[in-house]
């Protein structure tokens, strides 16, 4: 028993291989950080598409300032010179989307879901942003955005 205690006291804690493993872990974290933040498409926003339950319900082109409404669930509430306000409803669920034409940017300003994460998500101002409202199954993406997967979200 005393030999084991003396052996533990003499042990320095870290060995060279422990430090090598930590260095590899740090290198992997830095590589992932660089891959995520330096490979984003930050070119200017040309347009946006809004999907409700994986069905295209609205799109807009900022180059020509034209938009298309594809569903009765989308209503244009306000169309001033510099912005468009949309209300997207699905039964009692709703989201209010603000589109700034001069920015250009797209943001969710109001929602009646429990989490309201979409309201707190930053506005889409370039081709790297996406807004999801998971409870209402609303998705706002830059026009021409093609995800690497099929867009299916698996929860729990």
Describe it for me?
This protein is of the alpha+beta class. The chain is 23% helix and 35% strand. The chain contains three helices and nine strands. The strands form two sheets. A five-stranded antiparallel beta sheet has the order 3-2-1-9-8, with no helix packed on it. The longest helix has 23 residues, at 16-38. It is elongated, with a radius of gyration of 24 Å.
Which shape, going by the Cα principal axes? elongated
Helix proportion = 10-25%
Poorly predicted runs = none
Global mean pLDDT: 83
**How does the major sheet shape up?**
5 strands, antiparallel
User: Which series of helices and strands comes N to C?
Assistant: HHEEEEEEEHEE
* Number of distinct helices: 3
Distance between the termini: 48 Å
Strand order of the largest sheet: 3-2-1-9-8
Q: What would you call the structural class?
A: alpha+beta
User: What percent strand?
Assistant: 25-35%
**What is Rg?**
24 Å
- Compute the number of strand runs: 9
Concise summary:
By secondary structure, the protein is of the alpha+beta class.
Defining key terms:
alpha+beta, four-stranded antiparallel beta sheet, 9 strands, 35% strand
